[in-house]
């Protein structure tokens, strides 16, 4: 397959857009910034003022994002169409009312063009602006550019982060030493992929699509019952040492579509995990129980009596116990402390959100970066709990990563297995994997489960799927 790449004209226009959204400031603006922020190291402030998006490698990072397929096909095509239009005089005349290619315009005129997209009555134009703005800001500040930014003062500290009073993630050595000191030994999983060199058919007792909250619990229970279980995960499995702790790297490798999932109009961003361990690998460890009124509605409206007779609560208790959920001794950030104080003064109800962290005390090492992957063994996510239980059962479960399930196989209304595309032993080639199983568990999240069921051709006369 030919590698994805923007055309030279598209690349030039993208760079101009990024540098308009994040430009190098003028000498006057820099002087004003230095006068206003005399509390900050002036050398770091100068770097912030003098760094453009191109200095930070933002256009190249955005092109890599497009090449990785993080944007849906329709959104990518819309972006390419806009870049093409903004690269020509006619396209700019139709799009922004000026007959000069965007990259050839003075900075002030570029800003006016982008604001016209932002404020357009056409949703597609507003969507394109929001996408470009989000991709520019995320790629500028979520990555450590200390070595690549020509304006940065030395490679030891990212000046942009320093201005924001952000230290960045601890080093790999610090993370490993902390985990060792706390006795948090890592369980390393073996992946079935290493044995796949051609199209393959397997037979198991149960195949589970998804390694997150739901799939992991089912895997542990079935493996404990002596069932041959295979857990399939479309994302890549990373060992702790392979996680950097940086937000940019986490967005690319641990979140759905590179953290670019949004509503159709781009108005609301949707953060969803795409990792071994599902959302538990990147969430903030808050463990909220299902409200009573929701359980009552499910029981009354849908006839699901387990939500009213205590059965569900007992299961929830068992899960919370296994992942170590606690609300005792939870330390709060300054922001949360102020919010709690305000709620108390206003008479609003306020309580601690229970967490499943091994250490909930103040300044727990690794806690501030838990949304970028857990290198410290701090969070009791599914790889640390239920998936580990499944892997160490009397009949150990098997696991496959980089395995995209295309379809649930079924006949006469009965599931018979799944068909997948899996990355094989060489780490690059894809093969077809058929898994025959009398038990098929679809537990790949609220975004992907409905999509899998729909493309599997299941009956949907009641319109409940999707």
Can I get a quick summary?
By secondary structure, the protein is α/β, with parallel strands linked by helices. It has helices at 8-21, 27-36, 42-50, 58-67, 73-86, 89-96, 107-118, 123-141, 159-163, 172-181, 213-224, 247-254, 292-302, 311-322, 334-346, 386-391, 445-455; strands spanning 200-203, 206-209, 229-232, 398-400, 403-411, 414-423, 430-436, 439-442. Helix 2 packs antiparallel against helix 3, helix 4 crosses helix 8 (123-141) and helix 5 (73-86) packs across helix 6 (89-96).
Which helices and strands appear, and what pairs or packs with what?
Layout: H1 8-21, H2 27-36, H3 42-50, H4 58-67, H5 73-86, H6 89-96, H7 107-118, H8 123-141, H9 159-163, H10 172-181, E1 200-203, E2 206-209, H11 213-224, E3 229-232, H12 247-254, H13 292-302, H14 311-322, H15 334-346, H16 386-391, E4 398-400, E5 403-411, E6 414-423, E7 430-436, E8 439-442, H17 445-455
Helix pairs in contact: 1-5, 1-7, 2-3, 4-8, 5-6, 7-8
């Amino acid at each position: 397959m030919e590698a994805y790449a923007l055309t030279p004209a598209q690349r030039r226009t993208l760079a101009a857009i990024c540098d308009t959204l994040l430009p190098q400031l003028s000498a006057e603006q820099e002087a004003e910034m230095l006068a206003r922020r005399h509390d900050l190291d002036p050398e770091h402030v100068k770097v912030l003022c003098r760094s453009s998006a191109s200095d930070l490698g933002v256009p190249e990072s955005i092109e890599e994002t497009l090449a990785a397929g993080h944007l849906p096909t329709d959104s990518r095509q819309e972006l390419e169409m806009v870049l093409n239009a903004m690269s020509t005089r006619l396209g700019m005349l139709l799009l922004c009312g000026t007959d000069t290619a965007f990259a050839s315009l003075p900075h002030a005129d570029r800003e006016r063009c982008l604001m016209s997209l932002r404020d357009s009555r056409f949703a597609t134009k507003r969507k394109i602006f929001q996408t470009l703005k989000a991709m520019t800001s995320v790629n500028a500040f979520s990555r450590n550019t200390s070595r690549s930014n020509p304006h940065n003062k030395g490679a030891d500290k990212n000046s942009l982060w320093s201005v924001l009073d952000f230290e960045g993630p601890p080093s790999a050595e610090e993370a490993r030493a902390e985990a060792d000191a706390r006795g948090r030994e890592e369980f390393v999983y073996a992946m079935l992929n290493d044995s796949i060199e051609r199209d393959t058919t397997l037979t198991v007792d149960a195949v589970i699509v998804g390694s997150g909250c739901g799939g992991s619990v089912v895997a542990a229970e079935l493996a404990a019952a002596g069932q041959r279980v295979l857990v399939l995960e479309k994302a890549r499995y990373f060992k702790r040492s392979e996680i950097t702790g940086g937000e940019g790297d986490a967005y690319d490798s641990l979140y759905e579509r590179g953290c670019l999932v949004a509503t159709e109009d781009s108005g609301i961003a949707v953060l969803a995990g795409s990792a071994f361990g599902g959302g538990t690998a990147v969430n903030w460890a808050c463990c909220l129980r299902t409200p009573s009124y929701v359980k009552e509605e499910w029981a009354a409206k849908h006839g699901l009596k387990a939500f009213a007779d205590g059965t569900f609560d007992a299961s929830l208790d068992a899960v919370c116990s296994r992942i170590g959920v606690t609300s005792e001794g939870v330390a709060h950030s300054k922001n949360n402390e102020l919010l709690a104080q305000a709620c108390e003064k206003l008479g609003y109800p306020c309580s601690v959100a229970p967490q499943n962290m091994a250490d909930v005390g103040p300044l727990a090492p690794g806690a501030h970066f838990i949304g970028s992957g857990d290198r410290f063994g701090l969070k009791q996510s599914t790889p640390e709990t239920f998936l580990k239980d499944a892997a160490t059962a009397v009949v150990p479960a098997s696991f496959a990563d980089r395995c995209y399930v295309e379809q649930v196989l079924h006949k006469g209304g009965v599931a018979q297995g799944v068909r997948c595309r899996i990355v094989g032993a060489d780490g690059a080639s894809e093969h077809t994997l058929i898994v025959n199983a009398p038990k098929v568990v679809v537990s790949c999240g609220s975004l992907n489960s409905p999509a899998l069921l729909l493309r599997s051709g299941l009956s949907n006369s009641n319109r409940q799927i999707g």
